[in-house]
Amino acid sequence: MEEVVAAKRSRERVSAAIIASLALGAVLLVAMGLFGVISGTVTRRRGELAVRLALGATHGRVLRLVLSEGALLVSLGVLLGMPGVYAAGNLVRGLLIDISPWDPPTLIAVALGLALVAMVACYLPARRVLRIDPAPLLRQE
Description:
With 141 residues, the chain is mainly α. Helices cover 82% and strands 0% of the residues. The protein starts with a helix and ends with a helix.
């Protein structure tokens, strides 16, 4: 009997593995895109960040400024993505076993996981702020 049940569930397992791998690829693409956006922002704003540092802001304060902008992008993305979650819930309902597509703990865990990945993707280019020496940058401009 266990073999019959396992044979019937093998299709669902393969589908789940494919969907999980596609979701992982999507998360990596989003993280790379956010990394690029924040990296470009830090590069374009080097002069402004150098002025802030020259006027007495600490490296940590400027780092928090860059990270807060990334957090704003992440929260805006989560808010805009919520209606899509409910729309896509009907599409994947047949693939889910013993769980609802709108399970609040799962949705919260996924949102927190995505936020964590996104903040790591924001932190990596924001570390460049720690290497800014304001004196040479201000002399150039």
